[in-house]
From TrEMBL:
The keyword Hydrolase applies. It comes from Vibrio aquaticus. This is Phosphohistidine phosphatase SixA. It comes from the Bacteria. InterPro entries: His_Pase_superF_clade-1, His_PPase_superfam, Mito_Ser/Thr_phosphatase, SixA. Gene3D superfamilies: Phosphoglycerate mutase-like. SUPFAM superfamilies: Phosphoglycerate mutase-like.
Amino acid sequence: MKIFIMRHGEAEHFAASDADRELTPHGRSASVTVAKACAEKGFAQFDKVLVSPYIRAQQTWQEISAHFSSSQVETCDDITPYGDSEQVADYVSALVDVHNYESVLIVSHLPLVGYLTSEFVTDMAPPMFPTSGLICIEYSLETLQGEVRFNLHP
């Protein structure tokens, strides 16, 4: 199965709170560029999409959803910047196991996206994601091991 992890697009620097930071116009267009590149690789349908409740992640999904489709989109309070990567990885693994998902997309933030990547690809140090960066991981529930299939960034 495939796990796609995407960092939100570039966001404004200041807002009333971190959760309220909105995407910049560049963040919107860069996210669409990455979504198009992913779709061109043949990956545009996801069994499940998990999106952080923070505005910039929600806006990223709004922008890229024109190029991706999923019948199940969930706002997930556990995938904020300092979410527990082990807990999130366990949740995703359980979803995949119970529902037999073939593909899951997670739209979240640094540092969680890096730590989450290393939860699924255990021999990899947490990578730094650029804004709008996306990584595709081929993951085996049997071995609980993953490997990076590709990285995309604007």
